[in-house]
Amino acid sequence: MRHNKKFNHLGRTNTHREAMLSNMASSLIKHKRIFTTTAKAKALRKFVEPLITKCKEDTTHSRRVVFSTLQDKNAVTELFKEVAQKIGDRPGGYTRIIKTGNRLGDNAAMCFIELVDYNENMLKDTTAKKTTKTRRSRKKSTAAETAAPVAEAPAAEATEEKAAE
What we know:
The chain is an alpha+beta fold. The chain is 59% helix and 12% strand. It has six helices and three strands, in the order αβαααββαα.
């Protein structure tokens, strides 16, 4: 029986799938963002996040385990030096998938997969959201400000007239 043996084979043999995911993981680590199909991105997320978790502990054993999976010395070096420093305090969720629509040729669902702490645009948006904003319209507030001084002016004139008498 094949109970609980459910994952996307991506239409490939086991060795082809492992080689493809290894190459995609190396590219993701080197370039911090890659453009691929949604199915491959979801499979890659399950493949690369345990490797990133493993790189938090910089030991010889963890380097060997990651290298046996990636087979790329430069990617392993970058993963343990740069990526591990940025994600050291993050408990998980190291990647983000942003869907971009369908491919023209075969209508396949396409997306970006990227490392979360490396997207400067998203980081700027989170800092911009921390500023206080109101949901009120600016038109109403400017109308209220212009109406308030007009209401104060007749009252001021009335007090001036009483003072003059």
